[in-house]
Amino acid sequence: MKPGLPVWRSLLYVPVNVEKYVEKAHTRGADCILLDLEDSVPAHEKDNARKLVAQNAKRVRRGGADVGVRINRPDAMAPRDLEAAIGPDVNAIQVPKVDDAAHLRRLDEMVAKLEAKRGLKAGHTKFIAMVETPAAFFKMPEIAAAVARTVAMDIGGEDFALETGMEPTEEALLMPKQQMIFAARSGGIMPLGYIASVASFSDLEAFRKMVKRSRQYGFLGATCIHPAQVTIVNEEYSPSAEDVALAKRVIEGNAKAAAEGRASFAIDGKMVDVPVVVRAERLLERHAAIQAREAAKRSASR
Question: Whole-prediction pTM value?
Answer without folding.
Answer: 0.95
